[in-house]
Amino acid sequence: MPETAAAGPPARSARRTRTARRLRLTAAVFAACAALSACEASSAEPVVQPGAPGQAGRVLPADELPDTGGGRYTEADVRFMQGMIEHHAQALRMTALVAGRGTSRELATLAERIEISQKNEIGLMQGWLRARLKEVPSVGRAGHGHHGGGSMPGMLTEAQLAELEQARGAEFDRLFCTYMIYHHTGALRMVERLLAEKGGEEPEIRQFASHVDSDQRIEIDRMRRILMSISGKGYHPTG
């Protein structure tokens, strides 16, 4: 009994540490994407005759919004947001497999970071699409990479997901990093495609795409280091 009682404080401390880490990660994601929500709110206010303080104005449809010099959203922006929701949804399928399979504590922490940030980003993308009366992909059925026609870069096949699900120990850690690097690299290509299609002129889209690009690159670097620590070998592209 004394040994059981002694284990209480460290356990509570560990829980507090995990909770604090989640709060920090959530705050960081909201801070990095704050411009998206802020711009959505401003676009919903009247731009010709703002109401007096405390009074709401008339909400203008997207096709009535004037060009303020900051750029308006395009169909490329819509496709990007719809596709990225599905892309993020598959990443969440992957992070859900980490508990009980991997052995790397660093990988578990990174997977938690990916899960928190991408869940929050999905919410932001859904809000952006709803504000513009666009179709919002169902996350529950997403993760297969076919929204809007064609497959998205970096998406894993069901066979690859099954392989990851069956792996254990160091092999799981290695496979998770290899596949998630491939998946993240696909997200970078989606940002490149957005810009090549003349998207990203609307300020909130530009801010969000920049955030996705920088965040994915940081996580790729971390996974490359984890792979080196596991086997002493770097990343080798899959597929």
Give a topology summary.
Blueprint: H1 2-6, H2 8-32, H3 34-43, H4 75-95, H5 105-131, H6 158-166, H7 169-196, H8 203-231
Helix pairs in contact: 2-5, 3-8, 4-5, 4-7, 5-8, 6-7, 7-8
Count of β-strands: 0
The first-level CATH class name: Mainly Alpha
Question: Which geometry do the CA atoms define?
Answer: elongated
Mean pLDDT: 78
CATH superfamily: Ferritin, core subunit, four-helix bundle
Q: For the report, how would you describe the main beta sheet? A: none
Query: How many individual helices?
Result: 8
Would you give an account of this structure?
With 239 residues, the protein is mostly helical. It is 64% helix and 0% strand. It contains 8 helices and no strands. The radius of gyration is 21 Å and the shape is elongated.
Can you give keywords for this protein?
239 residues; Ferritin; mainly alpha
Brief description of this entry?
With 239 residues, this protein is mainly α.
